[in-house]
UniProtKB/TrEMBL annotation:
InterPro entries: Cu_polyphenol_OxRdtase, Cu_polyphenol_OxRdtase_sf, Cytotoxic_necrot_fac-like_cat. It comes from the Bacteria. NCBIfam families: peptidoglycan editing factor PgeF (TIGR00726). The gene is pgeF. Keywords: Hydrolase, Metal-binding, Transferase, Zinc. Pfam families: Cu-oxidase_4. The lineage of its organism: Bacteria, Pseudomonadati, Balneolota, Balneolia, Balneolales. Coiled coil: none annotated. Gene3D superfamilies: CNF1/YfiH-like putative cysteine hydrolases (3.60.140.10). It catalyses: S-methyl-5'-thioadenosine + phosphate = 5-(methylsulfanyl)-alpha-D-ribose 1-phosphate + adenine; adenosine + H2O + H(+) = inosine + NH4(+); adenosine + phosphate = alpha-D-ribose 1-phosphate + adenine; inosine + phosphate = alpha-D-ribose 1-phosphate + hypoxanthine. This is Purine nucleoside phosphorylase. Belongs to the purine nucleoside phosphorylase YfiH/LACC1 family. It comes from Fodinibius salicampi.
Length: 254
């Protein structure tokens, strides 16, 4: 990958810094960077955007080079806002999937987002990691609880599992129609402060993890809102078809 290597800015989960067995990153927009054949400013990592695929491939290779990740050892989800989760043991793109789990050291799992939450789960003792794309559709379809349950079948233990919920739409900016709001428990919908209902996606995801037995101290939630912080995050709601995608990555160290 040679000359594609660049320096990028990431969020690294605080709760993972103490775990020698696991590495994870959430990419920022990196506004100062732009591939020569890309018209979307920043490190756009999503094939499902208006950028040419060749530009996205160059961006992904540059990202992987900066993290010293072998491009053959990355599993990507071809996301469709479902609750489908796959256990994987090799690199490649997995179709119609919004969650990936592995027990294989060295295999990196990758999820792309632009307003939805990326949820990373890991057990550093029993060597199980998972990455999940959780927008409102995936959240109400229980992709995260489903993924957590599959991870437990793969050997993870609830007492040592840890979670990271990425920047995503905050309550103040997550306006939805009544037909969407009614799919959430009322405690996670604000019907009073705004002209239309607003959903608290982050708090709902924390609730789902707690319902599965995880403690508050095991869960890290980023407070940033993707629609509010244009300098650091892409937002499909703000930018429409001109929006790029961030990426959450996690792997067990070899």
């Amino acid at each position: 990958m040679g000359n594609l290597k660049s320096d990028f800015s990431f969020i690294i989960p605080e709760v993972i810094k103490k775990d020698d067995a696991v590495e994870a990153w959430f990419t920022l927009k990196n506004s100062a960077y732009q591939a020569p054949d890309s018209h979307i400013k920043g490190l756009n990592l999503g094939f499902n955007t208006s950028d040419d695929e060749s530009a996205i491939l160059k961006n992904r290779l540059a990202l992987l080079a900066s993290l010293n990740i072998d491009e053959e050892w990355v599993a990507y989800a071809d996301q469709v806002h479902s609750n489908r989760v796959q256990v994987v043991n090799e690199g490649g793109t997995y179709s119609a999937t919004d969650g990936l789990i592995t027990t294989l050291p060295g295999l990196t799992l990758a999820i792309q987002v632009a307003d939805c939450a990326a949820v990373l789960l890991w057990d550093p003792i029993n060597y199980v990691v998972g990455a999940f794309h959780a927008g409102w559709r995936g959240a109400v379809a229980k992709i995260v609880p489903k993924g957590l349950q599959i991870m437990r079948r793969e050997g993870a233990e609830i007492q040592v599992l840890k979670a990271f919920i990425s920047p995503c739409l905050a309550l103040e900016n997550f306006e939805v129609g009544t037909e969407v709001a009614e799919q959430f428990p009322t405690e996670f919908v604000d019907y009073n402060q705004f002209s239309k209902p607003h959903v608290d996606l982050k708090r709902f995801l924390v609730h789902q993890l707690r319902e599965e037995g995880m403690g508050t101290a095991q869960i890290e939630v980023r407070e940033e809102c993707t629609i509010e912080d244009e300098d650091h995050f892409y937002s499909y709601r703000r930018e429409g078809d001109n929006s790029g995608r961030m990426m959450a990555l996690i792997r067990l160290k070899r």
